[in-house]
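As agreed, record copied across for absentees:
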Amino acid sequence: MTADTVADTEYRGMVRLLPARARPYALLARFDRPIGWWLLFWPCAWGLALSGMPGADYREFAWFLAGAIAMRGAGCVYNDVVDRKLDAQVERTRNRPLASGAVSVRAACIWMAVLLGVGLAVWVHLPIRPKLFALMTLPVIALYPFMKRITWWPQAFLGLVFGSGAVVGFAAGDWKVYYPERVDSMWLLYAGTILWVIGYDTIYALQDVEDDALVGVRSSARRLGRAVRPGVGAFYAGALGLWAASFWLLRPDPLVLAALVPVAGHLGWQVATLAPADGANALARFRANRLAGLLMFAACIVVGMTL
């Protein structure tokens, strides 16, 4: 493994304390890499906070966090079942439990069913509208692992899935309100979140551009090539513009846009310091989006919870 390649599976944190037989399953669900469930959870939290939560309470955040952990884990298992042969050919992913043979496909599917059961419990808890919005993402989830073989923009499909929490969260918090400006604000929040996901997942894909080229896997990082930094910058700028429009519909006051300044500064720092040829740098900038999510959450609280 080269110096700038970061292993995709690492025995660290709580994973090191698990029994040896349980560790491959924890790695399969990426419990060693909590950044994934944070990135799935934050849009849910944004939607809840921006809605002002007239139809929900603070326990909804815990429900969504539990759902994010379980569904992200199930998604990773499904992705690894589909991609196990490709993963074995990529330096960063060849040690994943399925690619390395540490876990059988049958055992992985049973583990995925367990995780989906947790996700189902969260889904059952939701009101009808967010239930329906969540169901609408299932076809995209099923197709996502195959998109890297079909399109240069599989990150856009990931954006449709990971960004959908903004709609589900908003609908869960505001399920009795039907004012057009509030519904439009919800969809603008979702659209901006899709662009944010494309931006950060393009950064993540920089780790694999050479191996992806060898095995024929497509990605936005490969498509953008030398223009990857301005490309990521454009996606982040588009996200900020749509988020600003979402805020403005709820409260047309220039002061509410100031709430986006911290997250705008952070996303700008990511782009300015991104080194596309350095895998460790790309992974660090990708992981930094956990803080970006927190800053955006604070902005949604300022605008939504004080309406």
Notes: The chain has one domain: 18-304. The two ends are 52 Å apart (CA to CA).
